[in-house]
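Section 3.1 - Work completed
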Amino acid sequence: MDHWNNLWGTTEALSSFAEGEMAFGYKGAVADYWSSVFEAQTPQAVVADLCCGNGALLLAAASYSCSTDKDFMLYGIDAAQINFSAVKQQLAKLTAPVRAEFLGDTSIEKLPLASQSVDLAISQFGFEYTDLDMSLTELHRVLKSGTSLHFIAHHPESFISTDCSLGVAILSALMDQYLYFDLAISLIELTLQLKQKSIAPAQVPAFAQVNQALLAIMQKFNQNYQSAYEQEWYSELFRQTAQAVLASDFAALERVKALKVNTGFHLQRLVQQQAVALTPEQLDQKLAAQPGLFAPAVYTEIKSNEGLIGLAVKLTKI
């Protein structure tokens, strides 16, 4: 969970939508899908946003509620430690007061909600990360009879998953195969030691060796990954590291150490995203193992001009 605590604690983004362009809200086919879900709800529906992150989907529900004179009661729930300040600021800007409660550090598999108290459960790229055997049972408990869980899940064949696979390959190589950040840290530490002794780095063979090794890694990546699409995964890391090496002071050393930690957490999130990508067949197997909870799942592929975004799932409580 540390890798998610890291994300929500270091970004103002409202969602982890590929940690990219929709990080501050949803649009296009995703927004249209959720609008259709919200439209079907009663005016005072109790809505639980599961694995809510910094609250992008909850904000979408609140915005819809205000714009249509509905009065949703909203719960934002996530297992990570989140302070929710960003979404609270956005909620305060809406045209009408919003009833919302946020529950961080809260297991989706054991919700602090009363049985049959929820009219709608929703999740955007989150519910598939839970222990589905346990969370499906728990959702059946808290949902009212005949109401539904709607969630959009990562799919193995989505363009987001394809991008994720590329990111895993590049970041894994940087961190584990080439030890890029370790070399940068070693170079800055060596420079600091030489400065303390008033020794010019050019006079020390070890400095030249580490510096050349670092430059060789950068050159190799620029040769192997030449498209802008590929370079998005590492160009900013190279830029920040190069600036730190040029500065080679204690603040720069701490920046590179933090960059290594944050990149490691990012890699963990990507690896987990690969692991949880969901197909209809996989979910149907889970549902078949727990008969009597939900009606057969309804699946909708959510697409954009770039291709498949994710798999929308509707589960209605029996």
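Second construct:
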Amino acid sequence: MPVTPMTPVLFFDGNCHLCNESVRLLLKLDRHRRLRYAPLQGETARILFEQIDESSSLTRALPDSIVFFDGKRLLVTWKALLGIASLLWPGARLLLAVLAFPPISWGGAALYRMIAALRYRVFGRADYCAVGKKADRELFLP
């Protein structure tokens, strides 16, 4: 599938071991290869974020966030996780709607912030963004 403005893209911290392992897991779970992946530190992220977020409020939240572009809008942190799950498991939309409802969403967002703050200490840093198998390289954007 070629990359188009409607292509879902997951932006992740390419220097984070937890983030890299999460991408590897998503590569296995995404059997239909719907997602594309790009590091937050990359050119694709810079260009898209500048186009969508002229005020740069989004860039202040980075790189402590994953960012999911669903083809129309950017979702950050906990909402990004729910957006990715909705794409990969459409049958779980009712459960995801419950998880998006306050106060459950507040707890999810708080848990996300806690993990994001501790991820380098617990999982360490990577010197480079690990792409994975050669067959998956076409799914990665600069």
